[in-house]
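Board work, copied verbatim: Lytic murein transglycosylase
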Amino acid sequence: MKKIILAGLIATGFLSVTPALAAPQCGNDSSGFARWVEDFKRVAPSSGVNPSVVERAFANISYNRETIRADRGQKSFKLSFDEFMRKRGGATIISRGKSMRSGNASLFASIERRYGVPAGPLIAIWGMETGFGSFMGNQHTLSAVATLAYDCRRSAYFTEQLYAALQLVARGDLSISARGAAHGEIGQTQFLPLNVVRYGTDGDGDGHIDMVRSRADALASTANFLRGHGWRAGAGYQPGEPNFAAIQGWNAASVYQRAIAHIGGQIDGLQTSSR
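↓ predict structure ↓
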């Protein structure tokens, strides 16, 4: 039986215990998923999760084959920069992004005052992740995260994400019927659950962090994520400049990092290079 430490959630105060927690046995196909769910439901309450939250959250969970296919087929990050920009519609994101910046000028100014992050990289992320909120995914979020927690490839990592998702359900910031991207990413800038717990911000002041319906929440949370990864107000964010390291924290693929910097720079009116 595997042992894991859910350090991130312990740090947030969600888990009430600090010893290593026994993880249910992972699997590489759907055959063991139902058993895994029952084992997880037994373990979760002893880790600080209210049993009623567990029951509600798992009421409609199923093994998600679309999630597994997506997890095994991430090929776009192997493209060249120019190929990646064409595939992701980089020119359109830049054009629309400039309009988004002018149409939401007060929001972006407020975010920059608070977090030190200018509009460009936030809009680049927003545009590349969901087309400015136009498509946030159609997979059942809790099923996607539970499937990857069960799957042996990255079981420990996504078990931590599953506990974070349960925390969001408990506090009313994630619906048990919510739908999003194939790996359980949530909302307009596609945060994994644990990043919502760590960096989610109530940007519109309504008392909740709604990454789906509130662009203010999504964009402020994204700025808070970048600040949490070392963003320094006033420093540059192109490759080789101080804030590029914070962009690297957003996505591990170098081509994606360069695209954020280039698109953001074009929106902010900077001199950028695609090389």
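Strands lie at 3-4, 21-22, 139-140, 179-180.
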